[in-house]
Design brief:
The radius of gyration is 19 Å and the shape is globular. It folds into two domains: 5-214, DHBP synthase (Alpha-Beta Complex); 234-320, Rossmann fold. The strands form two sheets. It has an eleven-stranded mixed beta sheet, sandwiched between helices. Strands 12-15-13-14 form a four-stranded parallel beta sheet. It has helices at residues 9-17, 39-49, 64-69, 76-85, 102-105, 119-126, 148-155, 194-201, 239-243, 277-292, 310-321; strands spanning 5-6, 22-24, 31-35, 58-60, 90-95, 110-114, 132-133, 161-163, 175-178, 185-188, 205-206, 233-237, 251-255, 268-270, 298-302. Helix 1 (9-17) crosses helix 6 (119-126). 30% of the residues lie in helices and 18% in strands. Strand 9 and strand 10 form a beta hairpin. The chain contains eleven helices and 15 strands. It is of the alpha/beta class. Bound molecules: threonylcarbamoyladenylate (TXA) and magnesium ion. Residues 26, 28-29, 31, 55-58, 91, 93, 105, 108, 110-112, 114, 116, 134-136, 173-174, 176, 220-223 line the site of threonylcarbamoyladenylate.
Length: 323
């Protein structure tokens, strides 16, 4: 890997203090981080990712106390969830404060906050007196990176330093829950299952589909229908049915646990032979990248059970399949 990748936290801090971009590991995916209080540094994130500026960023820190010291009010149910799941793969959307630059919130009046659960990044955050604005470290619209190499491949020339924390343990982006609406509402399925959230604060709504009819829907603006796009065409759903339309020697397959006899074994990626949805989620994005490098005509992906992290997996595969 290139010379500007390593585990030097002090070096990462010195770059961040100077307003430069640093890729950071989290338990979900790697983030492309800048000092959230430095608007000029945050703009570099949008440029590096080619991200539209209407799409706000998550800020990352290591404690609720710091968020409060920056003028943010923590809703009671968020505090409850945080006791159970932060640090962890859960992002909260709450009313913003004067301390947070508009470029971070895209002028929405709301800010997304997360305490990520990765030892190196938690240590880094504990040494900073500002939050890190960090979207996933991929060009806008592409597959999120789950190891330092993925970051280097796509954004290596855009970052001052890649803090290497190994492969991501959760492997799929955080679940986003909004406290802007009357009732807490999930805006993105992700690394924390809806069932776990409901075990702490009771039933929650989920508004994760884009609907043009209802512009007032409290969506995460970045959840565009087409996202996580591989180069190859990807078809998501009934693989057995799709196989009858294609040359079975020329397809790549992403499956939960099944194997398709008519397709060459090297073109099949089984995400969890023991049918564990957490394991499948952890491997999903690397598998999508691997399938995309194969010399095939199309990638076929199975639908996963709609429970636990299966919902997040299905969400990502569906967006990857849109034209
Ligand atoms: O796991 C994760 O959440 C990773 C790691 C790096 O923390 N980050 C991540 O960021 O996935 P990004 O930017 O790729 O996705 C954040 C999503 C976007 O869809 C964005 O529109 C939404 O969160 N979002 C951010 N701030 C928001 C706000 N104030 N209101 C509504 N949605 C917001
Ligand atoms: Mg992203």
């Amino acid at each position: 890997m290139s010379a500007h990748t390593g585990t030097d936290i002090e070096l990462a801090i010195s770059h961040l203090n100077r307003g430069e971009l640093v890729a950071i590991p989290t338990e979900t995916v790697y983030g492309l981080a800048a000092n959230a209080f430095d608007a000029d540094a945050v703009i570099k994130i949008y440029h590096a990712k080619n991200r539209p500026q209407f799409n706000p960023l998550i800020i990352h820190t290591d404690s609720l106390e710091k968020l409060e010291s920056w003028g943010l009010h923590i809703p009671e149910k968020m505090r409850l969830l945080a006791q159970h799941f932060s640090p962890g793969p859960l992002t909260y959307i709450i009313p913003t404060s004067a301390r947070i630059p508009d470029i971070v919130t895209a002028g929405t009046g709301a800010v997304a906050v997360r305490i990520p659960n990765h030892p190196i990044t938690l240590e880094l955050l504990s040494k900073l007196n500002y939050p890190l604005a960090a979207p996933s470290a991929n060009p806008s619209g592409f597959i999120s990176p789950t190891n330092a190499w993925h970051v280097n491949e796509q954004l290596g020339d855009k970052v001052a330093y890649i803090l290497n924390g190994g492969p991501c343990e959760v492997g799929i982006e955080s679940t986003i829950i909004s406290f802007i609406t009357d009732q807490p509402c999930i805006l993105r399925f992700g690394g924390l299952a809806q069932e776990k959230i409901e075990s702490v604060i009771g039933k929650v709504n989920a508004h994760t589909e884009l609907s043009i009819e209802n512009e007032n829907q409290p969506l995460a603006p970045g959840m565009l229908v087409r996202h996580y796009a591989p180069e190859h065409k990807l078809m998501f759903g009934d693989v057995r049915k799709y196989l009858s339309y294609f040359n079975t020697q020329r397809v790549a397959i992403l499956t939960y646990s099944s194997v398709y006899e008519e397709v060459p074994a090297r073109q099949q990626i089984v995400l969890s032979p023991s049918r564990n949805l957490d394991e499948a989620a952890q491997r999903l994005f690397a598998a999508m990248r691997e399938a995309d490098k194969m010399d095939v005509d199309v990638i076929l992906a199975e639908k996963f059970p709609d429970e636990g992290l299966g919902r997040a997996i299905n969400d990502r595969l569906k967006r990857a399949s849109e034209q």
